[in-house]
Prior knowledge:
Blueprint: H1 2-25, E1 32-34, E2 37-44, E3 49-56, E4 61-63, E5 66-76, E6 85-93, E7 99-108, E8 117-118, E9 122-130
Amino acid sequence: MKSVMQGKWLLRAVFVGAAVSLMATVPARAARIENAVAVFSGLDKITGRITEFDVYMNETVQFGALQVTPRVCYSRDDSEAQHVDGFVQVDEITLDRHIKRIFSGWMFADSPALNAIEHPIYDVWLKDCKQTSTVPKPAK
């Protein structure tokens, strides 16, 4: 009787171990949404004004002496916790009219201080991503 009970427990342990290893090999898939518009906030440190602005993907918007160009902006569907991130490039127009890249990388809306643009005069950070904007799309 004792060996039959040990066999059942062993069989259960093998079954549970197989189920756990199967779950570990199947990656969880987040429903990642690619959006058409990135929403940024910008701070002018001289005036103290914060401006929110929409930028279409691969378009450039000037904020002070900075040119902000989002390349991709991802969010998640409504069934998951929101996680907004985007790949952004920021150039500075210098006083002698040269354009200098000061940032190229990922920004995360839920951690704005992680990769925000910190310039002596301007700060820029990603706030959100969305499919449409009230701002007209630039003409090609």
